[in-house]
Amino acid sequence: MRILILALTLLFLVACTLAPPGGKGFRAGPADAAAAVPPPPGTSRAVLTLIAQARDAIEAGDALTAAARLERALRIEPRNPVLWHYMARLRLAQDKPQQAAGLAARANSLAGDDRRLQAANWRLIAEARDRLGDPAGARRAEAEAERLEAGR
Amino acid sequence: MAKKKSARRKPVTPRRRRQRSAKQRASRRPVSRRWGPRWRTVLIALLVSALAWTGWLDYRIRSEFEGKRWALPATVYGRPLELYAGQRLSPDQLRAELERLDYRLDQALDAPGSFHVRRGRFRLHKRAFRFPDGPGPARRLEIVFDGGRIGQVRDLDSGATVDLVRLEPPRIGGIYPAHREDRILIRLEQAPRELREGIIAVEDRRFRSHFGINPRAIARALWANLRAGATVQGGSTLTQQLVKNFFLSNRRSLWRKANEAVMAILLEWHYGKDEILEAYLNEIYLGQDGDRAIHGFGLASRFYFDREVGELTLPQIATLIALVRGPSWYDPRRHPERLLERRNLVLRILAEQGVVAPARARAAARTGLGIRRGRLTGGRWPAYLDLVRRQLRRDYRQADLTSEGLRIFTAFDPLVQAAAERALTTRLRALDRARGLGGKLQGAVVVTDTRTGEVLAVVGDRDPRYPGFNRALDAVRPIGSLIKPAIYLTALRRADYSLSTAIDDGPIRIQGPDGRVWSPRNYDGRSHGTVPLFRALIHSYNQATVRLGMTLGFEAIADTLERLGATRKVPAYPSMLLGAVGFTPYEMAAMYQTLAAGGFRTPLRAIRAVTTADGEPLGRYPLEVEQTLEAAPVAALVSVLREVTRSGTARWLRERLPGLDVAGKTGTTDDLRDSWFAGFSGDRLAVVWLGRDDNGPIRLSGSRGALRVWGDLFAALPTTGLLPPATDAVEYHWVDAETGLLADAGCPGAVELAYVRGTAPAERADCATGRAPAGDGGGPFDWLKRLFR
User: Is this prediction's ipTM beyond 0.85?
Assistant: First the structure.
């Protein structure tokens, strides 16, 4: 169990780093580090606090607590797409690609015209599909991400 | 045995006797010794039976003690109230929450669990609480309101602004083994020091040093009783009293007393003093509420003073200690003067023994009894607890739930629950009377959060406290027109249908395989000719719906239902199209939830997290989301359901909820047996069902019954209106309600609907001014051609 948690932590820490509130957001990972997704400007202090606390939990290797804190943030700002995106990221790190894809799609549905966030979501969906054994779907998602990034 | 035999043979063998007698002489023993073997045998037998008996007592007392000691029921908590600037919360709601959490008015804010209000500012000393995701320390806070929201949260000690803090969650019940429903178990450290030490000072001063019984006390009591010629004094230690309580008998036979004494000694042998004291505090009999026994100080403080044991004042503690001697003799209702006298005696003893300062004891003795009957737990929200129990049972063993002291954190919202209960009971009573149903009208309500799928409230009976049949979860009833959105959504998902597609509402006859003919009628008994698709749904036309459904096919509709989250198989026969298929209110909530979330299916969940008694996380019930339906057709459908509440079968809501944008659907079944309404705002969803358990007619349609409850509920809830759908794959158009042609906002009877991009009508109604359509223009729409076909 401990090894599993450790592995998850490492995986997650490699996959993303979370900056303090007000700063950057979860970073998508080495592959697309440029696509770091910060919380949108209107994000409340309460939610920023929770994002920071979620980061603390991730650093402590406690994905469960991190998820609980992100959910708490979601209850405060359910239409903040970045929270859904972070949640998706966390699920992927917990090796729950199906869930990650669902949450990323939800994040996309709320993303409005935030292309950077949409691209990050599509990359995440691509990764999730890949792990679910759907390489064709992964390629389509990857293409969608590239299209969005090129359009910026 | 061999010796016995030889002894018996002695008289018949004189020769050998002589021979032996020489030997015997050599080892002659006293006469008594000759009887020795027999006595020894008896003695051994006695010893063995005594040992066996002791072993049996030991077994009994240990299993009894272990059973009680470990039987810590799971505690179920509701959602903690979050406090942060911008949170929509009124001063009244905060006060109600604090009262629910048993906060006391106190200007000084000395102890956690106190608050006061001055000029609209709340100051409170919140209690410490260990949440599943971390500790929440006690702190003193100030809450400032600003127009229906929290303006600022400030730490009173540091003066700093607090970004986010939560109150401790309300305890909404416990999960007990069936026969121990009436217990609030406490841990020793939860009991105030005055209680822990006071009970020892009054009942058993040598508790810390004796070995289970106190011979001196027994002798003293014996002497006193002999002198008085009756039992006037007890010499029982706390341990003995505990043993006596375990076996619940008041018989005072000597044999019993002896057994109790042995068991007391055995208890002390096996367990520590603190363990015994904790068991005592939880076990001792302290009163009676009808046929329900009040055991333990946890329940007693709730029963007599309506508060947690940790918050008892000194006079209250003394009162409870006084009751130990005889809850019936000192019954606070029948003999308050007796109880008061004894309480003051207890206070004097506490002062004499140095448990409290004499001045404090004297001050306490001047107060009244202050009995304030509290509600006993377990019975307040049975329907929600039932849901929690079922969700837990999938993951935990019943034995663990009732004995491991697990802590269950749920999304239960007491505020929403109270609104749901009030809406249901008030309307039900009035409707029942108006329809002369003789108290037989029943109902159920389920309320969820549309964004997270969390279940906020459940009512399963017209009496929300009644822990019987839970209609919200178990009443499988035909859903009537509540099924229609699934049929229309099936159409909207197809490229060849739009909101304005013309459908025929003429009379329809369907012949079944058995030759029987089914010809459903519209609710108003009339046919409406050819109507645009949205209109048939707004007014819930049966004939148009059945015709549409027959064209779409059962399979496609069943697929949509499944995507919405239906867990039951829907039969493939025509009457299914009018909802002749049974679902529970809870299941309907799950399906409408998917609509409210724009096509994202989220399993409903009551539980957020489970931890051990010490706060170690055991399991979480994470938010799960899956997109099962395309966003655009769902948004189009929801725009029609919104219109249902403005100009359709639920238009009453326009008056009831002025300015609040909501969407929903009424449902009525044959002969007016079931009355349904399912609907949602921007953040809340509720399903209401009314009907009779015996399935008799209630003479209420969806709009006359369930809708009214729903409207009252949403009028009371803090909620936001519908938000624009999170998709750019739809475009909004004003269309003529009669023809479905493009119109203007100013046109009489025009409605604004969301069309899947590219499906809006191209043609204009007469009143339209010729302004360009808002979006890209619709696809080919041949309204007139169809009309004249």
Answer: no
